[in-house]
Amino acid sequence: MNVTLLIPLVFGWIAGLFINYVSDVLPLTRRFSQPVCAHCQAPFAWTAYLMLRTCQTCGTARSLRTWLVQVLTTAAFTYFWLFPSERLGIPLTMLVLIYFSIITVIDLEHRLILHPTSLAGVALGLIVGTFIYSKKYTLLGSLGQSLLGGLIGFGIMFLLYQLGTLVARYRARRMQAAGQAGDEEEALGGGDVYLAGVLGLMLGPAIVSALAYGILLGGLVSFIFIVALLLRRRYSSDALMTFIPYGPYFIIGAFYLLFILK
Ligand SMILES: [Zn+2]
């Protein structure tokens, strides 16, 4: 085995620990606080936490997600070390991988895209977007492309979000008229608007394709989900309006454009 492979293996494992840590504490405390057991909320000693030990108070083992993130991040780091993305180079690739993983894990577990992660994304997005376009444009020109992409991504999703809010309000009124209590379902989370802006900063005007891929993929998965419900006769008209967490689908679209597309 090539010894230099130890570099992505070690850094990938450490990055996995960081992704797990941020995903564990940020949704709960909104800051870099001391980690606690997911089951009994007892504080974790740092070394025990970083060694992925079981909780000493209640004996609950660490979550499946924790292990999945460790293995997948290490694998992804190794892969992109061996086959680096031409667009980003190795360091930015690793940073974007970490960022995408944190957003995805928190969105899947909490259906939330947090403002602190969006803010960090703005900084990372500007760097990534400017770097990508600097091969074709001047520094100022590439910064402009990045900003333009951010504006397009934010703008498109902002309009869709407004449209979704209108539909949700109309539906709530219909439900009230029918004597049912209205619910607070949103077809599209507000955090997705910020995420689209951040991905736009990274991709520039190509964000349009990433959003299109994301919406198509999200729609396709929802369609399969509804068909599955229909087949099991569990379908109700409410299933149509259940929240679709578009975040992870946008991430997949952006991932494809940044790392896979030649
Ligand atoms: Zn515990």
Short account of what is shown:
Helix content is 71%, strand content 0%.
What does this structure look like?
With 262 residues, the chain is mainly alpha-helical. It has ten helices and no strands. It has helices at 6-29, 46-50, 64-82, 89-110, 115-133, 139-177, 190-203, 207-231, 238-241, 247-260. The longest helix is centred in the middle third of the chain and has 39 residues, at 139-177. The radius of gyration is 20 Å and the shape is globular. The two termini are 29 Å apart. The mean pLDDT is 89.
Helix fraction, binned, reads: over 70%
**Major sheet:** none
Note the overall shape. globular
Spans of at least 5 consecutive residues with low confidence: none
Q: Class by helix and strand content?
A: mainly alpha
Distance between the termini: 29 Å
Summarize model confidence as the mean pLDDT.
89
Ligands and ions found? zinc ion
Note the beta-strand portion: under 5%
Number of β-strand runs: 0
As a whole number of angstroms, the C-alpha radius of gyration is 20 Å
Tally of DSSP helical segments: 10
Strand-and-helix sequence, N→C? Answer: HHHHHHHHHH
